Amino acid sequence: MLSxxxxxxxxIRRERAVCRKVSPDRS
Length: 27
Fold this sequence. Notes:
Oligomer: single chain
Structural class: mainly alpha
Low-confidence stretches: none
Distance between the termini: 34 Å
């Protein structure tokens, strides 16, 4: 099981991508 900064970064990157996809005009 991955437990550390790698997982946190992946989660942040994923959430960021979703936010960007949902509202790209919202810098």
